[in-house]
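**Protein of interest**
===
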Amino acid sequence: MADPIQQLTAALARLPGVGEKTAQRFVFFLLADRTGAAREIAHALARLADEMSLCRQCGFPSQGELCAYCSDPRRDGGLICVVQNPQDVLAIERTAEYRGRYHVLHGVINPLEGVGPDRLPIRELLARLDGVSEVILALNPTVEGDATALYLQRLISPAGVKVTRPATGVAVGMGIEYADKATLAQAINSRRGMG
């Protein structure tokens, strides 16, 4: 195969969830496409590399030093929501319920994959606690997410900052009989009063 085909296939295969065969399909689609998609994608990738970085305060992608959430004076600076990745910020923003700031960890503690606390921006989070009244640990309810949340709670609580986690449980519109045991147990344990 021609070198550009091999090079792009290898580059695309490095993306999460994309294997070599899928990468090859993408490459041959772009090669045969006559709508200019390949040049459009190349231009967008060049802009991404040249113009985007991570916010120096929270770690969310930004075109400047501060992202839109950290630079918005209308957001509550006394409230920080800690998330695992930037996609979690977008999911929370879609709810239109949260008006605080964020802190993106870009992962969770996972010793089996060699990710310890020192590989996450935890010191940066602790440095932001002055004037913060609550930290929401919105990490995925997995073994690694729970361990990371517990680790962070132990570091944050002595600073006198309230530490919370979002409730988890049965999804809206889902019948209880369809919930798995762990989800149902979490829903029962995270119950709240009515009225």
